[in-house]
Amino acid sequence: MFVFGIHISTIIYVLIFLILIILVATNLLIRLNQKDKPYYIRFLLLLIAGLIYNIVEELFPDKNSPLDLITQYIISYTTGLASAIYFVSYLIKEYEVRFVRRVDLFMTGAIILFIFICSFIIPLTLTKSINISRYIFLSIILVILLVNTISIIKNQYLKFKSNKEFFLKVHSINGAIGFLSIVLFVFTILASSGNQFIVQTFYTLGFFIVSIDYFLYPLRKKEIKKSIPFEKLSVREAEVLMILLENPNLKYAELSQRLNISEKTLSTHLSNIYKKTEIKGKKEIHEMSNIYKDS
Questions:
Q1: Which whole number is the average pLDDT over 230-250?
Q2: First to last CA, the chain
Q3: Cβ atoms within 10 Å, residue 217
Q4: Cα–Cα distance between 15 and 9 in angstroms, integer?
Q5: Please, where are the H alpha helices in 99-162?
Q6: Nearest residue to 100 (alpha-carbon basis) of 161, 177, 158, 153
Q7: Lowest mean pLDDT among 7-16, 77-86, 98-107, 108-117
Q8: Radius of gyration, alpha carbons of the chain
Q9: pLDDT for 124-160, tens place per residue?
Q10: How far, in Å, are 10, 13, 60, 198 from residue 1 at the CA level?
């Protein structure tokens, strides 16, 4: 199972991450002046987070390290936590993953950090027991994740069901699997008492499954363009829809001011848009917005 003291699985995962990072970085350089540059940057950062997690997971804990075990555990769990937080933020941005309550990423990150310090770092420092600290901290995180799991899976399923295009359906499935990999990440640490191979494999597979969407991205862009039949709309209606897709949080009053029309006229345009395109409302426009802006 070991080659020069390193898990073979870790070597494989690290090599796959490095190959993906090189591919994405190359594509990013080619697309520096294109609209979808942010998508490649976000995905590249996700791969880097997965790579760093795998390297740190292999390095710590190590009895031969000059660092004491407490410090090593703190470094290891901090890295895992940081990668998971970024993974969740990526899922929210790219897959419109919705929690039970609308979350502010900065505030949520600050709360998780506070929980981490109070339920992991302090108990670990006082008790010197990784088992006690691990169970306290991860039990809290697992409860938070499980409370949101049903809601997230349900929303992803509804998007899967409503999407007519194949690659958009795959996109919805991958978003659900990505979130489940984070839940399994926490669960397997608790259930296996931190068994490196089990934990690392379940979590890393989540990164790789989400990576499938990277290779399907060009096809998904074509589908989202085809799914918005601008040709059915009048010039004014197409203008209204494009502005909404570019600015999904824009209020109708602000939109009418921007177009220099009354809210009643805007309401008529929106009614025509929804009838002609089969878009069900502003909520669906918000969901389509990210992919549309990238494409």
A1: 83
A2: 44
A3: 20
A4: 10
A5: 105-116, 122-127, 130-162
A6: 153
A7: 98-107
A8: 22
A9: 999 999 999 999 999 999 999 999 999 999 999 988 9
A10: 10, 14, 17, 13
The first and second tokens of residue 136, run together, are: 């306290």
What angle is formed at CA 35 by the lines to CA 34 and CA 41, rounded to 5 degrees? 85
* Contact call for residues 292 and 245 (beta carbons, < 8 A): yes
Q: Are 68 and 125 in contact (CB under 8 A)?
A: no
Q: What is the pTM of this model?
A: 0.83
- 113: its two tokens: 């950090």
Question: What 3-state class would DSSP assign to 2?
Answer: strand
182 in Cβ contact with 118 (< 8 Å): no
If you count them, how many residues does the chain have? Answer: 295
DSSP conformation letters of 18-59: HHHHHHHHHHHHHTTTSTTHHHHHHHHHHHHHHHHHHHHHHH
Cα separation, 106 vs 108, in Å, equals: 5
In SS3 terms, 190-214 reads as HHCCCCHHHHHHHHHHHHHHHHHHH
The pLDDT assigned to 73 comes to 96
Closest of 247, 239, 257 to residue 290, by C-alpha: 247
Q: What whole-number distance in Å separates Cα of residue 214 and Cα of residue 247?
A: 24
In angstroms, the CA 3 to CA 210 distance is 29
Between CA 141 and CA 184 the distance in angstroms is 12
Helices (H), 192-281: 196-226, 235-246, 252-259, 263-277
Verify cis geometry, omega within 30 degrees of 0, for the bond prior to 218: no
Confirm if 9 and 197 have CB atoms less than 8 A apart: yes
Residues 55-87: tens digit of each pLDDT? 999 999 888 889 999 999 999 999 999 999 999
